[in-house]
Amino acid sequence: MATRPTSHRARGLARRDALLRAAVEIVAERGVGGATHRAIAERAGVPPSTTTYFFASIDELVLEALRHFTDLRVEQLSGLATMLADQHSSPEETARLFAEILCAAPPQHEIAQFEAYLDSSRRGGDDRHAVVEILEAFESVAVAALKANGTPNPELVAPIFVSLADGYGLRRCVLGESLDPRPLADAFHRLFLSYADSPPTV
Fold it and tell me: Would you state the pLDDT for residue 1?
């Protein structure tokens, strides 16, 4: 008797995950304004009513999709930062591994992320707050990486670290091509060394 509820729950989770993936794809292709219940449900291969069963609004669905994939990347990068700190890895090794992971992210995830940034800047209020939380999650990873390399005042350097990564990712989105992680790794490495020698004070 326990099999049916378990199976039903698993099917529901599978549909929800399909909606999250579809939402990111649609936002990457059409922008936040092009993300509709119908378009997302069609891409996910589920009935149109499925979106409103799981999410109260289209904005909630889009933000949850971005949070979901952001959390996956943040978890991966946080685990890497912890490992590097435990192994006392060099700044060069830390820079290389972070650049490789960031450049391996699916382009559509980055496009959707940038679309959400721009959309939230127009809306303000709670929508902006939700996207700011995504940005702060990446900055928390940067703080961990900088701490692993002994960078003084890592909280002040983290926004620069994230801005560098985002700028490189935006270039990939514009050019529509894969990026070589080596230039980004070199830039990260130089950032580590520069701020270790001359820590920021403001």
Answer: 45
CATH number of 59-197: 1.10.357
Indicate the DSSP class of residue 47: -
Does an H or E element contain 199, and which?
A: none
Tokens 């450049």 belong to which residue? 103
| Cα Rg of the chain (Å, integer) | 19
CA 18 from chain centre, in angstroms, equals: 18
Give Cα separations from 112 to 1, 30, 67, 135, 183 (angstroms): 42, 9, 11, 13, 24
Domain definitions of the chain by residue range = 59-197
- pLDDT tens readout for residues 131-163: 888 888 889 889 988 888 888 899 999 999 999
Q: How far apart are CA 26 and CA 44, in angstroms?
A: 10
Residues 6+ apart with CB under 8 A from 200: 152, 153, 156, 157
